Amino acid sequence: APAPPTAPAPTPTAAPTATPVPPTATPAPPTPVPTQVPIAPPVRLSIPTIEVDAEIERVGLTPDGAMDVPKGPWTVGWYAPGPPAGELGNAAMAGHVDYRSVGPAVFWRLRELAPGDEVIVHRADGSGRRFVVTGVRAYYTDDIPLAEVFGPSERPGLNLITCTGQFSASARDYDRRLIVYTEAVGPAFRVR
């Protein structure tokens, strides 16, 4: 019986070898991540519309976790655990609307501010930053939108806080807080 036909044997070839291909361009160096230069702490607050020109003191948290308040009737308290005014995020500053045995205090006229009014923060390094009022709102103390007032933001904001509403003699406090929202405008400048 004849043998079945067979296919011709394949001709062995050399195995492929990897030849490095030279790059057509040099790789770009890694892009440096921009770092924000720390901003000097705020030392003075000016609000020309309501004739405020006040020193700023650092405040933190009270034992029950609320923002502390300035120690006197004529100073403004900057919430130092948050960003300084002019840095990305929402800086917060509080002042008394009135003060025991004094009467009207530094933020007595804060409720008169309206969108477009200017707020100026002077910093320890001699620079300053302008802010413009974008809104004024009153909230019951349990309804304050904390993330909106103290939380992160894509732009530099400054929120001014004081008491408003009804005063409770037994609680020795007001039932609402007035928040004046502002945003930075223009670059920092040298104070004269």
UniProtKB/TrEMBL annotation:
<keyword id="KW-0378">Hydrolase</keyword>
<dbReference type="Pfam" id="PF04203">
    <property type="entry name" value="Sortase"/>
</dbReference>
<protein>
    <recommendedName>
        <fullName>Class F sortase</fullName>
    </recommendedName>
</protein>
<dbReference type="InterPro" id="IPR005754">
    <property type="entry name" value="Sortase"/>
</dbReference>
<dbReference type="InterPro" id="IPR023365">
    <property type="entry name" value="Sortase_dom-sf"/>
</dbReference>
<feature type="region of interest" description="Disordered">
    <location>
        <begin position="1"/>
        <end position="33"/>
    </location>
</feature>
<dbReference type="InterPro" id="IPR042001">
    <property type="entry name" value="Sortase_F"/>
</dbReference>
<dbReference type="GO" id="GO:0016787">
    <property type="term" value="F:hydrolase activity"/>
</dbReference>
